[in-house]
Amino acid sequence: MMGPNPDEARRDADVQMLAQRLNELQEQVKAVEQENQTLIQEMEQVRTASRGAGSTTQSRLDALEKQFQTLQKARAEDRQAIIDDISHKIQGMLAGSAGRSSSSSSGGGSSSDTGYEHVVKSGETLSEIAHAYGVTTAAIRQANRMKSDSVRVGQKLFIPEKR
């Protein structure tokens, strides 16, 4: 009986690490969302109180709105950083596992005979797939003799190695 495949064990460890990192980042996003809700409530309280108050209340309200806008911007940047981080790690994992299982083109239209097989998942576009593998949509279309960028869920695509 053979022991576990080192590549599979490494991939499983990477997946576990990514899952843990994703959970940590989701907790951070939840904390920011809670802080945003608290700020919204405080702003409403200040607005209510400011209807009869003076300029000090208005300046506090202005400060709270500025703080809220800053937090919203930070939240958007955090969200994009999370997406970029996870996408980069997944892309690396896909490229690593796909590189270990390089396949030959069987009847593809490309002059390259090495590359990867990719099965289209729900929501994926040809542009996203090309970006993930670091190739152009034109290279994928040529390798698969496609007339357009349209792809279907479950469709198998040959992705030529980037040059």
What does this molecule look like?
This protein is mostly helical and 163 residues long. The chain folds into two domains: 7-100; 103-160, Membrane-bound Lytic Murein Transglycosylase D, Chain A (Roll). The protein is built from four helices and three strands. It has a three-stranded antiparallel beta sheet. It is elongated, with a radius of gyration of 24 Å. The two termini are 40 Å apart. Mean pLDDT is 82; it is low at 102-111.
Topology:
Elements (H helix, E strand, L loop, with lengths): L5 H45 L4 H46 L2 E2 L9 E6 L6 H8 L3 H7 L12 E5 L3
Antiparallel strand pairs: 1-2, 2-3
Q: What is the mean predicted local confidence, pLDDT?
A: 82
Distance between the termini: 40 Å
Number of domains in the coordinates? 2
Low-confidence stretches: 102-111
Total strand segments: 3
Estimate what percentage of residues fall within beta strands: 5-15%
Instruction: Describe the sheet with the most strands.
Output: 3 strands, antiparallel
Strand order of the largest sheet: 1-2-3
SSE succession: HHEEHHE
The SS-based structural class is mainly alpha
What does the radius of gyration come to? 24 Å
Oligomeric state, counting identical vs distinct chains: single chain
The 3D shape can be described as elongated
Count of alpha/pi helices = 4
Helix content: 55-70%
